[in-house]
Design goal:
This protein is α+β, with helices and mostly antiparallel strands. It has one domain: Winged helix-like DNA-binding domain superfamily/Winged helix DNA-binding domain (Arc Repressor Mutant, subunit A, Orthogonal Bundle). The protein has helices at 2-9, 16-23, 32-38, 53-61, and strands at 14-15, 42-45, 48-51. Strands 1-3-2 form a three-stranded antiparallel β-sheet. A hairpin with a 2-residue loop joins β2 and β3 (48-51).
Amino acid sequence: MILDFLEWLSGGPRPYAEVMDVWRTSCPRLTVWEDALDAGLVARRAGEVALTPKGRERLAGAGRP
């Protein structure tokens, strides 16, 4: 599911509010947003969320754009 999240962000930064609307969860088993942020795969800057170089590498390593 993290790869799905990273792929969703791969087109460019998205507003933080949109990311939270789509990906926030209260289920302790589905911590996609938190896991990606903790792993340094995404970063939040100036109200936007974007892939980091590490996130792009993770996508490329999985054969995703």
